[in-house]
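From the pipeline queue, job 12 of 40. The input is one protein chain; the requested action is below.

Action: predict structure.
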Amino acid sequence: MTPLSHISIVLVEPQSPGNIGAVARAMKNLGLSRLVLVNSQTELTPETSHRACGADDVVARSVRCATLREALKPFHLVVGTSSRSVPWISGVFRPSELADHLASLGEQEVALVFGPERTGLTNEHLDFCRLLVTIPTNPEFESMNLAHAVAIVAYELYQRSDARPVGRSPDLARTAELEELFDHLERCLLEIGFLDKDNPKRIMATLRQILSRAELEDRDVQILRGILRQWSWYAAHIKESQHQNTA
């Protein structure tokens, strides 16, 4: 296992075959090898290989997924990249700061998510992200080439790739487990009438943000799921009692 083999670059809806190749080249330059393409808007072409310039193996091993939710299931930590302010994500880092933070976590499975070339990550994409990395740029010209953005973040990670965490590394819950927790919580809140059944996502978005900031570990999720199961049992018991009293 190489020092950065636990970190993946995730490209959401990439639009240029050349950019995919350029990203692969930047990754290989800086010790990254795991590339994920989400709902790619382009096929791989000779331009991809030309821009990869010797990093064709990174492209060849890339994983393709239809949705971001599917792509992020295996990861313990999801880091979004954006130049804009995202109010519900409190953990916002510059690339060097992110490198220090990730080094302190040990070998957790980390996804660094980059958005479509034209729009960047949308709010829907950022809902899956627990941290945010922002590259300081000229405020009069903030738009950055996708491969350049990947290279800047990857460079900082590479500089800290030999760092070792101090103390116990957290056993962060994977994204798949968090999504199951969020789904379970939504069902329970609908069951007791806390959420608007016609628009449950409005409050759920805030609850997702609160729980994501907690950086939940596996055991935390298991305890919360246990509470929700007991909650569902109790709610069903109360409903049954009410039904018997009115019968």
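Job complete. Strands lie at 7-12, 34-38, 63-65, 77-81, 92-93, 110-114, 131-133.
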